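Please check this protein record:
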Amino acid sequence: MKLLNRALLGTAAGLVAVTAGATAGQAADLPVKARPVQYVKICSLYGAGFYYMPGTDMCLKIGGWVRGEISYGINGNSSTGIFTATDYNNRYTNNFWTRERGYITADAREQTAYGVARGYIAVGISSQNTGLEAPSSNFSSNRAYVQWAGFTAGLAVSFFDFYPAAALLYRAGNLPQEDTGDGGIWIWGYTAQLGGGVSATISAEERRNSQIIIASGAAGALGGPAAPGTNGNIPNGSGGSGYGGWQSPDIIGNLRVDQTWGSAQVMGAGHMVNPAYYGATPITGHPDDQWGWVVGGGIKINTPFISPGDYFVAEVNYTQGATKYLWNASSNAGENVLQGGNQGFGIGSDCVAGGTLAAGTATGCFLTTAWEVNAGYEHHWTPQWHQSFVGAYMAESYSSAANAILCSAMGGGNGAGSGSAAVATAGCNNDWSFWGVGSRLQWDVTKSFYIGVEVIYQQLLSAQTFNGRSTAVTQPANSGCPAAGCTVSDESNWAFTLRMHKDFLP
């Protein structure tokens, strides 16, 4: 009996041991709750919105924005509006205009032994809708650049820029200003940080061309070179008309200071003015190349003592032979508007030449002189409601020799009709100017969503012909002016815009 009891106890003990081992084994096979994994790791080196790309030390930020706009009184042109080289302001004019814009942005940065290496791109759509929109053709890109060790290369903003035109007005291009921020421009520059908020930059950039006018025909006819250097009617030439091929970038330099009180900058640029030929073929010769130039200065003063976020900003520029730096969004060939039987015009150019080698009347290229001033104030009525007040003025003038060539080409001159023999008829004066004011009121509904309205007034102080009537040379094609020409007069315009805008990130 004792032996049997021992056997039973041993068997029970063995079963307990086996059961315990099995239970332990089963427990080991059960899933264990995993520790939290941060699949997107925040990168705090460069501000909000950046995260580390998995498996790398590179920080990436994806952003963007989208907006819708309605405008009236801009002739279907978001740049210069009604004052364009081909505007009729008649039954064919598109007074009502809409635009949809949206961009996706990507900002990638990483540390190197020589500082941060950055790549930035912005691509999307941008329409110009006058009732015949084709969405498939609205692709747009305005940023694609690399920054590293003080260098910036690619499609970015010009280092000449200072005045923040697009931050003050939605239709900033309707007034004279040099801002390249909207469309961007090719640059390759180097910026040195000098300490205390002071920096200096030298940059090679895409050339900014107005037109070169080469008048080598008889009186009353422009004449001049054939395509690709042709000018057409004087005010209607496109940007780059009369220029030779691109031989040199524009050379930009600036000295800038940014501090708590605001910022200031002085800048300058050299621009190669290389005319095409006096006639249609190289055998006719050409005016010598020259370097146009522009100098400018700007200041921004923060005024939080009036209201937080307030500031005043102004810029002034002066040029000979580089007029595109005064109105980057312009049609490049001046301003022209027809209203009823009246016409205002202003011939834009970088230089004017005329005559022919065969006749012994060929001239060099007389550089065009121009200057401008911009000023704006941004006031915050409340933290969410703010309003801008903006004014701009620009004047373009010609030497007596250049004026005589232009007048003769317009039928208001004597002599051989062009070149050194040209003589302007009394009363013919191609100097012109333009001024305007505007205001934008914006409601920041949130940090990333706003609605705004804007009004702009524009005034063209026209050039003058000898008899107060326009000619075929100064009129846009199919202008509808009578045989005697439209009456030349100063012209004005009102433009209105409504915008709704949403950022993807604050």
Notes: Confidence is low (pLDDT under 50) at residues 1-28, 221-239. The helical segments are 2-29, 165-168, 400-409. The chain has one domain: 68-102+163-503.
